[in-house]
Design goal:
single chain, about 230 residues, mainly beta, nine-stranded antiparallel beta sheet, two-stranded antiparallel sheet, 11 strands
Length: about 230
């Protein structure tokens, strides 16, 4: 989603809906099915796309997509967006029905493929988002501004690699994410920090009409409330 308008991501190539238990291929939490989002990959030619969106509530979204080859085996994509929504009080009661909202994000990706069964995909992302709402000073019951705000900062990185070892495929996946929040409720400020790390190694092969998968995964989640 971008701003207050649901817009399909410009870097989305395909959506796979896998029904049933898929925990052997997608992790222990994939018990009822998986929605797998596949990113667009760079083509042999350079691509540039820009999307500008304006809503009746004053929201503005600017999205840029850039991709292209770096060499015969390497390619890149970059997704960047800037979004802003001004504060909106629809019924003029002093409380913000739509908070002020600003966000900047950047996501570069690198792709490598030797066209012989080996591939590596790197991704990273940075995002900063500020939301401010609450009541203005014109609210008679309060008399002074009552701010409700949320500041979010996030950084993440990931890698996916596949190597063909004879008739067996070696797969490696890893990701890390760090996110911090600053909540403001009037004169009260609460800060927290979350970190998640994930790693997986698997071997996939076939025997007759059967496909087998063996591997292991490790995930770590950490949360700290600083106030």
């Amino acid at each position: 989603s971008i701003g207050l308008l649901q817009i399909p991501p410009m870097d989305l190539r395909q959506v796979e809906v896998i029904k049933g238990v898929a925990s052997s291929l997608f992790g222990a939490s994939a018990l009822g099915g998986v929605v797998n989002l596949l990113s667009r990959e760079p083509k042999a030619t350079t691509e540039h796309e820009v999307l500008v969106n304006q809503t009746t509530q004053g929201a503005t979204d600017l999205v840029g997509w850039f991709s292209g080859p770096l060499s015969k085996s390497w390619g890149y994509t970059v997704l960047a967006n800037a979004d802003h929504q001004p504060r909106h009080d629809a019924d003029n009661d002093g409380w913000a029905d739509v908070p002020e909202f600003s966000r900047l994000s950047l996501r570069p990706r690198l792709f490598w493929n030797d066209h012989a069964g080996r591939s590596v995909f790197f991704t990273a992302g940075l995002m900063g988002e500020d939301r401010t709402g609450g009541a203005s000073g014109s609210l008679k019951q309060i008399g002074t501004p009552w701010v409700e705000a949320l500041k979010t900062r996030r950084a993440d990185a990931g890698v996916v690699a596949r190597v063909l070892l004879g008739s067996v495929v070696l797969g490696v996946r890893g990701s890390a994410n760090v996110q911090s929040h600053t909540h403001q409720f009037g004169d009260t400020t609460e800060r927290d920090r979350q970190a998640t790390g994930f790693g997986e190694v698997s071997l996939t092969g076939s025997h007759g009409r059967n496909t087998w998968v063996i591997g292991g995964a490790l995930q770590r989640d950490a949360y700290r409330n600083q106030d």
